[in-house]
Fold each of these.
Amino acid sequence: MLEDRTEQPHIVTCTAPVNIAVIKYWGKRNEDLILPINSSLSVTLHQDQLKTTTTVATSRSFQEDRIWLNGKEEDITHPRLQSCLREIRRLARKRRNDGDSGVDSASLSHKVHICSVNNFPTAAGLASSAAGFACLVYSLARVFGVEGELSGIARQGSGSACRSMYGGFVQWIMGNKEDGKDSLAQQVEPETHWPELRILVLVASTERKPVGSTSGMQTSVKTSCLLKHRAESVVPGRMVEMTEAIRKKDFTAFAELTMKDSNQFHATCLDTYPPIFYLNHVSQQIISLVHRYNKHCGETRVAYTFDAGPNAVIFTSQQHVPEFVHVVQHFFPPETNGADFIKGLPVNCASLSEEL
Ligand code: ADP
Ligand code: DP6
Ligand code: CO
């Protein structure tokens, strides 16, 4: 009998960028399926900036599924990893049963070894779980020959990961089905839509946050009445306004909504009991600097947003980057404990460092 005895593993390597929410997701209505209490909207960064790189290998000689994150082995039995592995294998099996599988995709009986590296701080409020799980799901899909809509699987790894499956401006529609089948990400506008828009990341701390997003939002759902009000009465209107501001490339409207939504998200963290403090004194100084700068200019030229961590993400347009960077460097010279470094992260074009 002929048998394929090759020990050669089947290997794929993929990268995925982070996405930064301008209308924040905070709170789940279903913890297992990761279904949110409100829709959210984000901007996906350029592939070659803050990103995860994941290699997945399968081989008949592997005894069990395993995962390494930034060089350290992690627990593969984590329910979220298991959800992603199970769902990709289920889709792969379905495709094969339908007689539709890729010729060179890996055998379904083979175990996987996953090796994932982030090129930026992990769990510091720079959306590592988003890039990480988006990359994991995409790489697994490639190795097992699965195609099509994958944001519903990435969502089950980390909610924000579903939005990193698409480039440009992306919404995560909360959906209302109990099985979560309609809780998916959808591109609102492509990468090419707003070429003058620029993103700067001001790193105030590279440390792991004291309270992870998952447990932080759990406590907020249980204790914050501001969060309930936000999800039911504020976010639905903001989703419409934000989509419109992006469609029209109306920077003033985009910037003001972005800042207000970040502020309200951090207000819900304070309204959580016990309260959660993600912003530090550098973050607060950056917030007041942005408002002072905009006032000085007589128009809104710059916006900030902060995820669950102290690091600022700044939106501005190409023409204002040099001046604003200059202002930041003046107030946070590299020798002081201000922002540790500034990285220019254009959504779509050449990097800031090349321009300066
Ligand atoms: P962040 O603000 O960085 O998204 P979170 O608290 O949401 O922080 O999530 C951090 C967790 O996400 C990590 O502890 C880890 O479990 C998971 N994670 C981060 N990067 C990856 C990755 N590349 N692959 C798989 N899981 C990852
Ligand atoms: C503040 O997606 O990291 O960044 O679904 O529990 O993995 P889990 O949480 P996560 O939460 C992100 C929260 C946020 C806002 C956002 O990205 O929308
Ligand atoms: Co996260």
Amino acid sequence: MPSMAQGEHKSFVQNSKPNPKSAYSMRQKIAEHRRSLPIASVEKRLIEEVQKNDILIIVGETGSGKTTQLPQFLYNAGFCREGKMIGITQPRRIAAVTVAKRVAEECEVELGQRVGYSIRFDDTTSSSTRLKYMTDGLLLREALLDPHLSRYSVIIVDEAHDRSVHTDVLLALLKKIQRARSKPVGEKTEFGNIASQVQTQTRDANGPQQNGVLKGCQGRKLSPLKLIIMSASLDARVFSEYFGGAKAVHVQGRQFPVDILYTVHPESDYVDAALVTIFQIHFEEKPGDILVFLTGQDEIESVERLVQERLQNIPEDKRKLLPLAIFSALPSEQQMKVFSPAPTGFRKVILATNIAETSITIPGIRYVIDPGFVKARSYDPSKGMESLDVVPASKAQTLQRSGRAGREGPGKSFRLYPEREFEKLEDSTKPEIKRCNLSNIILQLKALGIDDIVGFDFIDKPSRGAIIKALAELHSLGALADDGKLENPAGYQMSRLPLEPVYSKALILANQFNCLEEMLITVAVLSVESIFYDPREKREEARTSRNHFASVEGDHLTYLNVYRESDEFLEKRKAAGSGNNIDKVMKKWCKENYVNSRSLKHARDIYRQIREHVEQIGFNVSSCGNDMLGFRRCLAASFFLKAAQRQLDGTYRALESGEVVHIHPTSVLFRAKPECVIFNELMQTSKKYIKNLTRIDSLWLSELAPHHFKTAE
Ligand code: ADP
Ligand code: MG
């Protein structure tokens, strides 16, 4: 500190109206907040444990500071020397983004400098990044380029209790990588020769790595890798056993009592019950924010609208209720809004998906409303059908949800079902690996040189049926040879593209069909939430005004029309000199055409990124212009596994599974009902619906995928 000259005296006056946003008070507030977190008092001990143990399991109550603080402790303790990084993985994109922003703020650095995040199609990191928050899936992809993850000194697998499929596979892989990194270079490891692995950073994307010895590497040891597994649930045994009795430490949280309240009768409409409860709390309970757990974007947006509507009908002095949404498809500036304190006198009501259960902690919550449901993936390998269904939450989830009300003081949790229903809930959620399509993950394992999938060291083994189904699918797509080996260029190319194998295959085929430009657009649009804006109140109006985009050939060509028209419009406006406010102009165009401007922007971004990937592989992006017949044939060749044929009664039969399916009402082919279609999505709601369709000629199937469809003799 600079010394003050003798006799100099500065007088300070209390700011009559402290400005909470001033840098000084913000900094002080953050420092105080950090010191007050339960994890702060055990910093020294945690660092010692990390130094002593190569694998450490940290279990701590949600909100105790694991995710935001531990990486900073490690950084300060010197774990990032020599340019090494600390990687922190999250199962959810939204957690990686919001936490990285918070930590950058705490460290007073710009996001993307020392602290950054990287998720698919959105990377904010730079060469100075040392604390890298990312999704578990992204780190798996990094391992394809750098099999020893050699830039990391520590990897923290956060939210391990979530048991996402990527987390499970990552744990198994990190176990192997850690072992390999403790061996001297040149020694044989489970991945083959270490020196050859060092070289693989520059390996050719089109083929298996070359076995070579990097000069000067012999005898040198790769630096060891520290592994930290973090989890919110109390049961660390499963992870400890999996890592051969690894040490587990518990970070004591601070939890105030939470009153649990149940409804007397079952609720037939939990959205309505949640709405009533929100206002009941607002009118009758002491100050404190409300957190409501809903199942997805649609539900959240409709509750948000309904709260706003009801607010208009109550006396003005009671209207100080501020609904805020948080879900993954929301732009990140809006996601961050939930963390800001409510304006004076206002009560926030946060409408969240299960992201707010353990991955992110929102300050100020005193009341929780829990309808008891969650949207979960399920998969039936015998039919190849994946679906997203609303199902009852597990006991563990329900307990986590209630706990959110007692972080800063005593709270209340309103469960929207009778107490007897609680007893019927499952104890915990089934790991995702047991309920999802495995083709993507298996292709990645194969690309990492892991051939024996059935014998792979999973924490929980997926079913044999699901593995066989995925292997068969990869074989049909031409990624794997008859013996299940990954050895052809197409298979390697598919494993490199950050897409589901079937979409990667579509791009490879489109390169041969000379319609890569069109397929890139299609895949980009299919990767975003709906490209159309469909407000419930104006559905008909929206449909009519979008008619001019519609193609009689189906949804894919319709999307292409939207994208191309928006491109033409953009070019024209740029030529006309509106380069400066192009965003505004584009938004207006979208609004007039009932196109979702956020999705369109996102699709453009994805298009650009996948285009870079395919160019790196060596593809030339060419367009088929108006040859839509050629493009449809390419769609048929790509998506032949999802073809459906019209039946006499007007329903469709999916050729692969034999399921009876229906065209979804949002498809442009809903009324036309062509004889044969390919589709991208099968969704079970009240019926089994197929979405994103294109009309094809059924004869094309046996012509373009003869290995799969044998022609009738
Ligand atoms: P854990 O990982 O143990 O669940 P976190 O490190 O995520 O805990 O959170 C620690 C604290 O930081 C919590 O009290 C939370 O309220 C606060 N916090 C986290 N993210 C933000 C944010 N974006 N804005 C304000 N506070 C935040
Ligand atoms: Mg956390």
